Amino acid sequence: MSWTCSCVLVLIFVLPFLPFLASPASPIKNLPGYDGVLPFNLQAGYIGVGEGEEVQIFHLFVESQRNPNIDPLLLWFVGGPGCSALSAFFFENGPLRMDRNYGGDIPKLELNPYGWTQRLNMIYVDMPVGTGFSYSKTQQGYYSNDTQWVEHAYSFLQKWFIDHPKFGSNPLYIGGGSYSGLVTGPLVQKVYEGYMARHKPLLNIKGYVIASPSVDTYHDNNMKVLYAYQMSLIPEYLYESMKENCDGNFVNIDPENTKCVSDFEAYSEIIRYINSQQILEPFCVTTPALKQGIIQLVQDGPELCRSYYHILVNTWANDENVRKALHIREGTKEEFFRCNKTLAYTTDKLNVVEYYRNLTNANLQALVYTSDLDMAIPHLSTQHWIKSLNMSLHEKWRAWFVDGQVAGFTQIYKMKEDHYLTYVSVKGAGHVAQTFKPKEAYHMIDRWFSFSLI
C-alpha cells in the first residue's frame, strides 16, 4: 500500500518507567501457527536510535538458507509510510506466508517457496517510528519525517553490524517498495559516502533494489492520467481534452481553470472504482464493520480482495503468544496494525531524483522494477526519471522469461565502469510485484544477484 500525504497526528500513550535496556536480537525457533521448528535462522529484537536511543526500531533478521556466510545482505523497507515489516515477511518476499485456509485460534503459517531468503540474508525493519512494533520512549519521538527516517536507518545499520560482526564482509544492499523509494536513494548515498570515507563500522554497500518506487511524487501522480488512457480506462477524447485544458498538469490544478477542473472531475469519476494497486483485481473497501467477518471470507477463493487477506496478519500479531515469541516488549504497543495510517509523519522529500543521479557515479549496482498493472505508482513515472538520468544504453528493451513464458521486459543502462542500472517490468503484476507474481519476482531477483541476464 502507498500513500504520499502527510498523515494526521494521534496521541500515543507513553510508559515512562519501562526498563529500556539495550537488547540484541534474540533467536526464534518456533512461531505460533507454524508446525514444528522453523527451517531457517530467525532473530527478532530492537535497536535504539535517535537522541538517547528514544526511538526503538523493531526488526526481523533471517539468515540465508543457502550460504549465510557469503550471501548478500538485503535491508528491506516496506512502503506506506507506516506499513510493517511483517507485511513484507508474510505477503512479499519473506520465508513464510499465511495459509488462506484459516481455522482455529490463529492463522496458519506455511513456507513460501519463493522467499528471497533462500539466497539472501534479509533484514526487515518497522520504520519509521510508530510502524508495526517500533515505538518511542517519549511523545516527541513519534514526530518523524523522511529525513529522520534516513538518519535513523543509518544509525540502525551501524548498530546492527556492531551486533553482527560476522556479516561485516557480506555485500550489503538496501531496498524496498513504494513510498520507501523516497528514502532509499538518500540512505544509499549516505551509506556510500560513509563507506568511501572508511567510517567504522564499515558498511560494505554494493547496490540497491527498489520496487515500484516513489521517487518523483509529482510525476508519480501526474502520469496516472496517461496510464489510465494507455490502459483504456478513460476515452481518448477525455485524455486529449485534459491535456489541452490542464496543459499537461493534473496535480496542481488551478481552481479558476473551470475546463480543467471539469475534465479532472470526469476522469476521477470514471476511475473511482478502479483498484489502483492492480487495475484488474476487485475494488475493495475494508471497514471496521467488515473486519468481524473477514476470517470466514478469506477462504472464499483467489478472487477475494487482498485487503481482506491482509487483515490476517493483524489477527496473528495481536495474539499474546505471538508477541511472546517475537520478544515484543510489554506495554509498548497496545494494538498492531499492518499499516499504521495515523503516524505523526511529514513527507519532506517530494523528489529524490538527484540522489539517484548521484548514485550513477558510484561503484554500485542497481535494480529498479515495476509492475504493468500498477496505477498507484505507474511504470511510466519510473521510466521517466530513469530516462532523466541520461545514462548510456547497455542493453536494449527485450522480454525476459520464466518457464518458457514472457514474465516481463527489461532494459539495462550503464552507470560507471562495470556498474549498471537494470530496469525490469513484471507482466501481470500489481503494486508491488512480489506480492502478485512471487514466482517471477523470485527468478528475477535470483538471476540479478547471480550477475546473470534477467
From TrEMBL:
Residues 1-22 form the signal peptide. Keywords: Signal. Pfam families: Peptidase_S10 (PF00450). GO terms for molecular function: acyltransferase activity, transferring groups other than amino-acyl groups; serine-type carboxypeptidase activity. GO terms for biological process: proteolysis; secondary metabolic process. InterPro entries: AB_hydrolase_fold (IPR029058), Peptidase_S10 (IPR001563). Coiled coil: none annotated. Belongs to the peptidase S10 family. This is Uncharacterized protein.
